[in-house]
Amino acid sequence: MSTTAVSAAAAPAPVTKKAAKPPNPARARLRRRLAQWGFIAPAVIFMALFFGYPLVRNIVMSFQDYSPSTFFTGSSPFNGTDNWSNVFNDELFGKALWHTVLFTVGSLIGQFCIGLGLAVFFSRRFPLNGILRSLILLPWLVPMVVSGVVWRRILDQDTGVLNSFLGMVGLGDTPWLTSPGMALVSVVLVNIWIGIPFNMVILYGGLQEVPKELYEAASLDGASAWRTFRSITLPMLRPVITVVLVLGFMSTVKVLDLILALTDGGPADSTQTLGTLTYQNSFVQLDFGAGAVVGNILILISAVFAVFYLRANRNEGK
Amino acid sequence: MTAPSPDGLRQRRRRHHRRVIVPLTVVSALAGGAVLSGCGQQRDPDVYTVMNSSTDESYHRWDAQTLARCGKQLGVTIEQQSVPAAQVMTKALRMASSKSLPDVLQLDASEMPTFAEAGGLIPLKDLGLTTTDIPRGIVDFGSYEGTYYGAARTVNTLALFYNKDTLDRAGLKVPATWAEMRSTAKKLTTGKRYGLALSAGGAEDGVFQFTPFMWSNGGDETKLDSPQVAGALDYWKSLLKDRSLSKSTVNWTQADVNDQFMAGNAAMMINGPWQVETLNTKKALHWGMARIPVPKAGDDSVGPLGGGILTVPNTGDGAREKMSAKIIGCMSGEQEQITYALNSWMVPANEKAAAVWREKVPELAALSGQVATARSRTAKLGAGWSSVSLALQSAFQSALTGESSEAALKRAQQRATSGN
Description:
Structural class of chain B: alpha/beta
Number of helices of chain B: 17
Mean pLDDT of chain B: 87
Structural class of chain A: mainly alpha
Order of helices and strands of chain A: HHHHHHHHHHHHHHHH
Oligomer: heterodimer
Radius of gyration of chain B: 27 Å
Strand order of the largest sheet of chain B: 2-1-3-12-6
Largest sheet of chain B: 5 strands, mixed
Low-confidence stretches of chain A: 1-18
Radius of gyration of chain A: 26 Å
Number of strands of chain B: 13
Helix content of chain A: over 70%
Number of helices of chain A: 16
Low-confidence stretches of chain B: 1-24, 35-40
Largest interface: A-B, 50 and 57 residues
Distance between the termini of chain A: 20 Å
Shape of chain A: flat
Order of helices and strands of chain B: HEHEHEHHEEEEEHHEHHHEHEEHHEHHHH
Helix content of chain B: 40-55%
């Protein structure tokens, strides 16, 4: 777009134009620059205000003693790395980090595998395909908090529907949300349920893009269904899979509302993740500095994966 | 852009450029300006605002009626602003930094010390409110470090609710000691019904419910690893071991406990009077209320004092603050207290009002006795309560799901100490 030597050489037309119109080429260029910035400015201002400012503020806050009195006096003295060392010395942080890893990896694997399975299943033609596919979208439409509250009832050990259902086959006493060993598993299962539609829809879309001829060729070559899936479907889906996994990662790693509604981080902190820890530090203990520290760590983790994603995409493009 | 074009078109395009650039820049500037300046707020001289957590329709309506009466009496308009209870504190802090605090702020008593410590509240006595006729305990309830910041209209605490029919059918008396409650609960546990329901959830609800056991046993929040606190926790564990409590107890809020009791899944429950309105919607349910059982006969049953208090936030406008105090004076006046107490099933804070109220609702007599000995959660720790509360939640949940009470509480005490 810019009038560098390279683009000018590549597209000689404007150069000749400029030569044909001598009155002040510098002004014309300036005006053009201004026009370009005029179009970019709203986006830049928006980003700076709503992304840049909070981000920088959060980083600064993690080095400040930011307490309730700050809201009145406006003073929040810098306290070096006190917040950071407090957070790292809190045994809950280690636990929460570990739970976040388990929660994220477990959810991603579950959502992706089931989502992919369903996408492959629905990419064949059969009666009621469309209706069933839209029914599977339902979990996506339900707000996270509502899912959480409903699932809490379903998973109640004594009065929950799931246990009375399992009771018919003699498995009716599963402590879904009440045992520290089980609660995280249950939370992951609920999150998988929530994430399936997103994975399915995106992967289904990706499958539609795979040329049918490839499958025809494969069947002519006598490839088995598994071989076709491994050698055609998966490689062709690769760009879509990257998108699904990275977006899934970003929304899973910071999850908060679901866990608050299901277990409140309990029992005995067995479902505390970095998300709930940020919330607890900032809005229950009102220790905004510590909350900012955990928040920054979350941002950092997401940023690392965003970089991976961008690199992967750039390689795709080349 | 690269195609050669006749001069006229170029001209038009350039003009077009200008036509686009100018509005774009203006829009960005306006958007930026609106965001940066959007916080300041001008106060209307005759309109006062009261912020509370009365988001339930009924509570909102009762408060609106009170405010209408008080506004008429004082010659001002009072507006009510209700936000969910869990957000009052953070919302108020945000309003403080944007200098748009309400004139009267209703805080949960356990949150007031944090707000007072931050310098956000005006002492009510400086504004001319007195504490005559208010029992010592309730003055302390609204005080932080000896200064009276918050006037309570009504207070609440926990009590033992029981299903009269279930107890009568089993021929059992209402338990008064821990041993009696344990055996009664055990006898009442049959089939899908548990003898007792309480909340041991991982939030303030669970801690609120643990305090009467901890305090009645002589334990204290300043020393979580004492044998008295461990004894209280062991008592909870014994109820769970008897299967008198559901294992889901660790996942229940107080509202869940009430649901279970109403559904007949629990014969007794520990809960507060704010559930009465819901309980009474089920006509077939005959419930009674008693003091929370004590470790040994003759011990004091010490429950937690709960409820909101009315405070005047520091807005820097002395004249408005004086009027705000008058509004609080009216809202917490004797007659308004009785009206509010009768509506909300809580106990009036004022002694004279409480006497009138006791005659009107004799079925809640147990509650007023319990209030008389009840304690404020933050009296000893002030703003340090929240970190102790979090440590305690984690401890009793660990203990109820298998760990020994001593080990769990020892860790909790360490965490509470390092967290301060």
